[in-house]
Specification:
The complex is a heterodimer. By secondary structure, chain A is of the alpha/beta class. Chain A contains 8 helices and 6 strands; from the N terminus they run E-H-E-E-E-H-E-H-H-E-H-H-H-H. In chain A, helix 2 links the parallel strand 4 and strand 5. In chain B, the strands form 6 sheets. A 7-stranded mixed sheet of chain B has the order 3-2-4-5-7-6-12, with helices on both faces. In chain B, strands 9-11-10-13-14 form a 5-stranded mixed sheet, with helices on both faces. Chain B has a 4-stranded parallel sheet with strand order 15-16-18-17, sandwiched between helices. The chains are: A alpha/beta, B alpha/beta.
């Protein structure tokens, strides 16, 4: 049995980079790992997902209703992907969400934060103010690393391996910034 | 930080995408994308020449090699798949190891040389990577490349894991040399775009030099030669089938009285869900040795075939199954279309009475939310060009083509898309058929060079009345920003003369050729109006670099902002559909996604949008 993680967001928010950190951390620990991700045109501002299976030796695909952890960089995308979680699965989502352009163009009613939180139902959900924390860390582009930090105590991976994987994955000039974002996210996750 | 998957690939070979690609190490485990593992497998085989045309999910093989400073092989982006195929074939005929890469539909473009290269055979190892896309994640169809291999009578390798993909492509060159045949390597999206820990070997640098040895009976397929070559091709088949079993590509494990036969990435899902007492045969290579498969089937009471897309394995299984019942697509247990997944396979197996190790509960339905499809970027010139087309040619027919601009379907300016280059030909065909409305087609710069030019020549030659809008953003954007002949750079970042689309169009006989940036909306609309008023074939070249390329080149323009006191809430800018424009409390508002194209300021009827003034 693998520990299955879904990472969701909007194209450009760093789902692939985050899953690369998890994958590299697995290699550091010698754990087999499989991942599947969205490439190509779907990345242009659309909903994207990365599936990552820690300890899996076979295929990269997670079945709906079986994911152990859902990590979302957008609250609306968290709701969209919540059915991937197993009943006692855990969700970490950013508090913010981007309203799709189609909502404005077609005059649809835009869901509010309260409505979205309600749609998550009784799930084990942790909502993180990743923008505020990333700003404190020094750059709002580190929101994905803040979220990874928040969820990291739930992962079957050592903190040190994740830190080492971050060093190997992010642009060299941003290593310290990202490690700080990771640490601050981890603290925020614990204090919930 | 933001993802780097497409970063800087339009520029020079600046370094390895993954620093792990150090030469000289042996058997080291890395976390890699399937296409990166495939690229590394080719380097381990000392490939000499790599050609291809970008296409999801195949593009990152060449993107990895062209960005790798340690890569000693020659790498090129060709103008289309037929060209790539023939260039690689020529290298093979010169005794070099050659790879050509493409997506599955690219193989249609290269089908002509494919079929006959099986007759002429090869000299240096020649591998064709044709990446299939079950579920059409980013494709116009779900064709199965294995059928092409069968049609051409060449071996096909179909990996079930990333490690296997890496090992198979590494060994495919030697297989090609052994049988002097092209080898079709067929990974699918879930191989190319999935990731795993992969064992890599050391990179081997080639010591081959190109030398073509003339032999007309081999390389000139006049009827007298080709009849003999066809016979020779057929004679290779029995030994080939046996060899693929010997090499371990086709293998089985007997566990009980029921069996599953599977192939491709589906085999890894089967292994995840299958019960412990069910035998499994994995088909990793074609053609399948019928005798071998028949012997496996005969040791069971019933078998089920699980494979994506065409029933290639199933047809062979049915030929040799005797009285053993075969379940699969033909019995309605497995669909012919879409992609497989572990939970779906478990349900197919259970429905046919096969034992599984895992049972999945039906998952909850996804929540009902506004959809978030991919969308043209903020400041993308395609949106502006299509907005203007809609303004000028209200009720026209809009044939389009393959590229980011296919997303213009959301703007009502994409009425047809079938394959690369088919915008101009569908437009001229409608004109020829006598359709009375205006016909305005759109095609990108790379697609125009790929297969658009012939259609333009034909439209002029045969007197069509159409307007062709060439959306020239100087890059092959959708597949990850690969340079093309309009960019002025080769795949490896070497400066090269940029082709003139204007000169090509004029040489085709088009007298109305106008180039204008759609960001200058007023002039662009005037040019479209001038085109509309004239008969014959008119070409409007909408030229403006891709906003993503600009961002990577550090070109920054000032942002725009809505003066809330002037905005009347008419939604003219909202209807333009730019993702940087939001509606807040009935008024428009511009977010930090704005890239400063300034088009919304030209659309606003009351002058409420202007440049942002920084304090």
């Amino acid at each position: 049995m693998s520990f299955d993680v879904m990472i969701v967001g909007i194209g450009g928010q760093g789902t692939i980079l985050t899953s690369n950190i998890l994958g590299r951390a697995c290699v550091i620990e010698g754990i087999p790992v499989r991942g599947a991700e969205t490439h190509g045109m779907a990345q242009r501002g659309g909903s994207v997902e990365s599936q990552i299976r820690i300890g899996q030796e076979y295929g990269p695909l997670i079945a709906p209703g079986t994911a152990d952890l859902l990590l979302s960089f957008d609250l609306m995308e968290a709701v969209r992907a919540a059915h991937w979680l197993k009943p006692d699965g855990i969700l970490y989502s950013s508090k913010e969400y981007v309203i799709p352009t189609s909502v404005f163009m077609e005059d649809y009613p835009a869901p509010t934060e309260e409505m979205l939180t309600e749609m998550l139902g009784s799930r084990h959900a942790h909502i993180i103010d990743s923008r505020a924390i990333s700003q404190q860390a020094g750059n709002i582009l580190t929101q994905n690393i803040v979220m990874l930090g928040a969820a990291s105590p739930m992962l079957p991976l050592q903190k040190a391996s994740l830190q080492e994987a971050i060093r190997k994955t992010v642009p060299p000039k941003t290593v310290d910034l990202n490690l700080k974002a990771f640490e601050m996210g981890r603290e925020a996750g614990k204090s919930l | 930080m933001v993802e780097r998957t497409e970063q800087n690939m339009t520029h020079t070979r600046t370094g390895n995408i993954h620093r792990e690609f150090d030469p000289g190490f042996s058997m080291v485990v890395h976390y890699l994308l399937g296409n990166e593992a495939i690229a590394h497998g080719c380097l381990e085989a000392a490939v000499d020449v790599v050609c291809g045309y970008p296409g999801t999910p195949s593009s990152e093989v060449i993107d990895t090699l062209r960005m790798d400073t340690d890569c000693a092989c020659k790498v090129e982006w060709s103008v289309n798949e037929k060209v790539a195929f023939e260039e690689a074939l020529a290298a093979s005929w010169c005794g070099l190891r050659a790879l050509c890469t493409m997506k599955h539909v690219g193989l249609n473009v290269a089908a002509d040389p494919l079929m006959t290269s099986a007759y002429t055979g090869t000299k240096g190892g020649f591998v064709i990577m044709s990446a299939d896309d079950p579920f059409a994640h980013s494709s116009q169809n779900e064709q199965d490349s294995r059928c092409y291999a069968m049609f051409a009578k060449i071996p096909c390798l179909d990996p079930s894991t990333l490690q296997e993909a890496h090992d198979m492509v590494r060994d495919a060159f030697a297989l090609s040399e052994e049988f002097r045949l092209p080898v079709l390597f067929r990974p699918t999206t879930r191989i190319c775009h999935s990731k795993s820990d992969v064992n890599l070997g050391g990179i081997v640098v080639s010591d081959r030099t190109a030398l073509f040895e003339k032999d007309a009976r081999q390389y000139v397929v006049i009827p007298a030669h080709t009849r003999i070559l066809h016979q020779k091709l057929n004679q290779k088949q029995p030994a080939l089938r046996k060899r693929l079993v010997e090499l371990g590509y086709n293998r089985y494990e007997i566990k009980g009285k029921t069996a599953v036969i599977c192939g491709g990435v589906g085999a890894s899902y089967v292994r995840e869900v299958i019960g412990p007492d069910v035998s499994v045969a994995i088909i990793g290579a074609y053609p399948v040795d019928q005798e071998w498969l028949g012997a496996f089937i005969s040791r069971h009471e019933k078998v089920m075939v699980i494979e994506e897309l065409a029933p290639v394995i199933e047809e062979v299984a049915r030929q040799v199954s005797g009285t053993v019942p075969v379940f699969g697509k033909m019995t309605g247990h497995v669909p012919y279309e879409g992609e497989l997944a572990p939970d779906r396979i478990a349900s197919y197996l259970q429905a046919a009475g096969f034992e599984t190790a895992i049972s999945y509960q039906p998952a909850q339905a996804p929540a009902a939310l506004p959809v978030r499809p991919p969308i043209l970027c903020a400041g993308c010139m395609h949106r502006t060009a299509m907005y203007a087309m809609k303004k000028v040619f209200r009720d026209a027919i809009f044939p389009s083509d393959i590229g980011c601009y296919t997303l213009g379907i959301q703007l009502g300016t994409v009425d047809t898309t079938i394959c690369m280059g088919a915008s101009i030909t569908i437009a001229s065909g409608m004109s020829l058929a006598g359709e009375k409305r205006d016909i305005v087609c759109t095609i990108g710069d790379s697609t125009f060079l790929h297969t658009g030019i012939q259609g333009l020549i034909n439209a002029v030659y045969n007197g069509a009345t159409i307007t062709v809008v060439i959306l020239d953003n100087r890059i092959t954007a959708m597949t990850g920003h690969q340079p093309n002949p309009t960019t002025g750079l080769t795949a490896c970042g070497v400066a090269t003369p940029a082709v003139s689309i204007e000169a090509i169009c004029r040489a085709c006989g088009v007298s109305f050729v106008e180039t204008v940036s759609p960001n200058d909306l007023v002039t662009f609309i005037d040019v479209l109006k001038a085109a509309k008023a004239r008969p014959g074939v008119k070409v409007v070249i909408a030229r403006q670099p891709c906003v993503i390329s600009e961002k990577r080149a550090k070109i920054v323009r000032g942002r725009y902002t809505v003066h809330q006191d002037l905005c009347i809430g008419c939604k003219a800018c909202i209807k333009f559909g730019c993702p940087a424009i939001e509606l807040k409390g009935g008024l428009a508002s511009i977010t930090d996604l704005c890239s400063g194209c300034g088009v919304c300021a030209q659309i606003c009827p009351v002058g409420a949008i202007g440049r942002e003034v920084r304090e």
